[in-house]
Amino acid sequence: MIGGLSAEALEELIRTESEKDYLVVDVRQAEEYRLDHIPGSVNVPLADIQFDPYMFETGRKLIFCCTRGIRSKVAAIFVADAGHAEENLYHLRDGLYEYSGEILLDMPRVDRFPRNADPHATLETAVNFEKGAFRFYQMAKEQLAGTDLLAVIEKMSGDEIGHARSIFNEMQKIQASETDFKTYFDRCTGDILEGGKYFEEIEAVIRDPDSNTCMDILDFAVELEYSAYDLYKTMAENFEMPEIKAIFLRLSQAEKKHLDQLILALDLCTE
Ligand SMILES: [Fe+2]
Ligand SMILES: [Fe+2]
Predict the structure, then answer these.
(1) How far is the CA of 146 from the centre of ligand 1 (A)?
(2) Whose atoms come closest to the Cα of 127: which ligand?
(3) Are residues 128 and 242 located together in one domain of the fold?
């Protein structure tokens, strides 16, 4: 398991461990790193780690950090997947916000899918998550109008409707609904995203005039897509019905592709 460190635990580690035994890797973009970073940390943006997850020497602790603990977690997973021993991998759980003494909102989390839920109810929840992702990308489209990122974001929002539609089609097979897809989708609230955050709390951060909108959007998007990937992959394992297993596997593949595209898009954020 990849260890999540609190800010205090990281400070303690930096104070007590010998330098040769650990490395703090800041996975944010170079511009972000230049503004401020943990003393002694090296900067290797997430996209570079994805490109070459074998770059780190083995045998010492690697502690990944980023703004909110999202990109750092993904970085640690890439490196773990490349064969680096997980007991040497850590990430700064709540990110540099917490490290620099700012307090993040205590975000309520939901149990995303109730255990042993019936398949129809599970698919309904999944459509609602897709609606949440769609709403998120609609908001992102407004905020990123005129930037190089718009095309990427537009593609994502279109894809999320496609995901919702394919889940809806499976629902129809189990229990036909009276409404067509469009009416059903319009009625979905999409108020909770795959990562378990409420749409409103993300909206508040993104619309905050003091925030780095582009990077905030991509941070949340990476979290959303990573959670969607993780969630669908797990759902595929949880279901016996082959049709439902297949659809969740297909969705997890699609969300993983979104994650890849977003990581490449980090380079387009130039605020
Ligand atoms: Fe999706
Ligand atoms: Fe997605």
Answers:
(1) 24
(2) 1
(3) yes
For the entire predicted model, the pTM comes to: 0.73
Report residue 192 as tokens. 């909770």
Q: Residue 255 C-alpha to ligand 1 middle, in angstroms?
A: 6
Write the pLDDT tens digit of every residue in 118-169.
788 888 989 999 999 999 999 999 999 999 999 999 999 999 999 999 999 9
Residues 235, 177 share a domain: yes
Handedness of CA 120, 125, 129, 131 (dihedral sign): positive
Q: Determine the structural domain holding residue 167 and report its residue range.
A: 119-268
What does 156-184 look like in DSSP terms, one character per residue? Answer: HHHHHHHHHHHHHHHHHHHS--SS-HHHH
Domain end: 99, 132, 161, which one? 99
Place of tokens 């635990």: 9
What is the Å distance from ligand 2's center to 129 Cα?
10
Question: Which phi-psi region, left, alpha or beta, contains residue 259 (left: φ > 0; alpha: ψ -120 to 50)?
Answer: alpha
CATH of the domain at 15: 3.40.250.10
- Ligand closest to Cα of 163 equals 1
Spacing, Cα 192 to ligand 2 middle (Å): 14
